[in-house]
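your task:
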Amino acid sequence: MQLRQPIWPRFLPTATVLNCATLGPLGRRLPAPGTWGSLAGLMYYTVIFAGRYGVIGTVLLSALGCYVAVAICGEAEFRLGRRDPGEVILDEFVALPLCFLGWSYLVVGFPAWVVFLAGFGLFRLFDIVKPFGIRRLQDLPGGWGVVADDVAAALLTCAVLHGAHAGWGMMAA
């Protein structure tokens, strides 16, 4: 199976593609754009998801968001003439909610702000360092490579959060 870049964003104006891919001024005007995209993703999770849809609903909505991000980020790459440009932060935005799959379990015994802070910090760390082969995902074509490494960083963050929660529970018992 060959991954192909969705073609529908080709018909959008450049300003629309770039404004979506950079989340407006967040990616273009602020330092450390990936961090700002992740903070925006945290707000996105809080407002849209935060325990409302369960794991299945969050995965399905995130999959839809990731598909849109693949299309927009890939088209932004093409129009900017660069691979995975730093100002393109829609990928962090749509991937971050995956850090908190199983939210209702993660917040048992912990304040929500602790889980948010840990998830945000781990996601940024894994997105920057790209451990366990995550870096190779960037080699996927077009927007697939832009988004896949962020999705992997978010899922690794989720696994670490759940592992830490379970480990903390065993220590406390």
